[in-house]
Write a structure and sequence with these properties.
Shape: globular
Strand content: 5-15%
Number of helices: 14
Radius of gyration: 19 Å
Number of strands: 9
Structural class: alpha/beta
């Protein structure tokens, strides 16, 4: 069984030079490719596999991260047309604060501006003592390895998502964002799923899962901070829909982005399963021993999945 992860999916866009997105036409082609090559796991068989801790049906499971409006505008109609289902993992920060997630502010700064310019300004603001996690080998070597990005783009993302201390991160990102994106009001309005859209996805057979509140790298947080991100996000979603399936998705993904605190919190919070990011199939071993860190492929690891 293969789980595949998606983020931005949209038709051709102009004026946003560096946003990494999968063209809608290629998403359609990739679904055709999956149907011909692997087939899709039914929702019923997937959940039965989780329950029995045994693979019931081989095939593809589709997952969509970050609660993006793309998923309702473009993905949902295509899945409905084909009689498919998916799991949609939603961070809840926007619904409380009416603001973009820090990770998306980084994407947009780099999309609308030259990455070297953003990097140079970042270096003006960041002090060496802020980069407390620079020496973590996995953060330096195992992040953004499957993405086609220039060096400045990778450095900006690594510094802001991994190297910088959590206490400094939001302030630095907000300052940069306010300098490079002069007006985000219109962007915010159309960037994420609305609450009604979430309900409609759920009512039409899609699974809705938690993706934390603010999409942090959980391994950089202490246990109490992780509990807040993991538990409160699910509680918020539970007020929107009548959850019958408790599922979670680890932000960013990779073994360097979570720790034993993460797994224990998920286990004690009655989550049924959770996804990580790891380029391998889900096996019976994973269902029995890694149910809170199930592997997922990035869509760009398959034909037609390369993002612009």
């Amino acid at each position: 069984m293969k789980s595949v992860m998606y983020h931005y999916i949209r038709p051709n866009i102009t004026g946003v030079n560096n946003l990494r997105y999968l063209k809608l036409e290629n998403f359609v082609k990739q679904l055709d490719y999956f149907a011909d090559r692997y087939d899709f796991v039914t929702k019923e068989n997937f959940l039965e596999s989780i329950k029995l801790k045994k693979i019931i049906q081989k095939g593809i499971v589709l997952t969509f991260d970050d609660g993006l409006s793309d998923h309702y505008k473009y993905v949902f109609p295509e899945l409905t047309k084909r009689g498919l289902w998916g799991i949609f993992y939603i961070p809840t920060y926007y619904y409380k604060y009416n603001d973009l997630l820090a990770v998306h502010k980084i994407h947009l700064m780099l999309a609308y501006n030259d990455s070297e310019l953003v990097y140079n300004r970042l270096m003006d603001l960041v002090k060496p003592e802020m980069l407390i996690d620079y020496k973590i080998k996995e953060f330096r070597e195992k992040t953004y390895i499957n993405q086609d990005q220039n060096n400045h783009e990778k450095l900006v993302k690594r510094i802001l998502n991994y190297f910088i201390a959590h206490d400094f991160r939001s302030k630095i990102i907000d300052r940069l964002f306010n300098e490079f994106i002069f007006s985000a009001e219109d962007i915010i309005k159309s960037f994420y799923l609305s609450l009604e859209q979430i309900k409609n996805l759920y009512n039409n057979g899609m699974i809705i899962g938690s993706h934390t509140i603010s999409h942090p790298c959980l391994s950089k947080l202490d246990k109490k901070e992780q509990e807040k991100e993991i538990i409160e996000s699910f509680d918020y979603l539970s007020r929107i829909i009548d959850h019958k399936i408790n599922t979670f998705c680890i932000p960013y993904g990779g073994i360097h982005t979570f720790n034993n605190h993460t797994i224990n919190i998920l286990k004690n919070s009655d989550y049924s399963f959770a996804f990580n990011v790891e380029s391998k199939n889900i096996t019976n071993y994973d269902l029995n021993h890694s149910i809170y860190a199930l592997p997922r492929y990035d869509c760009n690891e398959f034909m037609y999945g390369e993002c612009n």
